Amino acid sequence: MTATIRAGAATDVGKIRRRNEDSAVAGRGIWAVADGMGGHAAGDVASNIAVTALRRLEDIHDRGPHDVRDELARANEDILAAAVADPSLGGMGTTATGLCLVRLDGADRWVVFNIGDSRVYRWSRGELDQLTVDHVAPEAITGRRGVITRALGTDPGPRPDLWVHDARPGERFLICSDGLPLEVSDADIAAVLADCPDPQQAAEELVRRAVVGGGRDNVTVVVVDHV
């Protein structure tokens, strides 16, 4: 891989929840957020299993989109196996959303992937675009909350959405759990991404605004710059 990447990550439990069930990875070639669900300790177990599987992508030389799909499938299998081994974890699940830098047709590309309602945005030339589609039942949406229709931890496993984009210097990506858009508008998200050139500073400021704005859910943010 020839792209030069800088990234920052931040998370907060918020004002309501007792436990942070989000997990994140900000590595050299994989950046992702997993938002766990299932109650008790199960949500954070599921999200941690998901990011552990995704971290294995770092070790794959000349990885491609199929490797991303394979690791998401393996994460689903690992979550189901953990629930069999410990029945108290039964019913746990998690979203899995992020970016993977791959080599395809001799060039660096981004693979954007999504299962659930965490999100990937691209901020470029002053425009903020949501690259992922929320897997939420439309009839259930109430103030950006709803019933998730796809999650890791199901049998059969969910079908991930994957998109491939050219890797262009100057782009900035935002990966977040739904605790961010629940409290912070797209306009305010774009303003922070414009005003904070350092990705770690941007991630921390977005999390801070989500907590100040209400903090009704865990919030996790990863900001990725292609410099």
Automatic annotation (TrEMBL):
<dbReference type="Pfam" id="PF13672">
    <property type="entry name" value="PP2C_2"/>
</dbReference>
<dbReference type="InterPro" id="IPR001932">
    <property type="entry name" value="PPM-type_phosphatase-like_dom"/>
</dbReference>
<feature type="domain" description="PPM-type phosphatase">
    <location>
        <begin position="6"/>
        <end position="226"/>
    </location>
</feature>
<protein>
    <submittedName>
        <fullName>Serine/threonine protein phosphatase</fullName>
    </submittedName>
</protein>
<dbReference type="GO" id="GO:0004722">
    <property type="term" value="F:protein serine/threonine phosphatase activity"/>
</dbReference>
<dbReference type="InterPro" id="IPR015655">
    <property type="entry name" value="PP2C"/>
</dbReference>
<dbReference type="InterPro" id="IPR036457">
    <property type="entry name" value="PPM-type-like_dom_sf"/>
</dbReference>
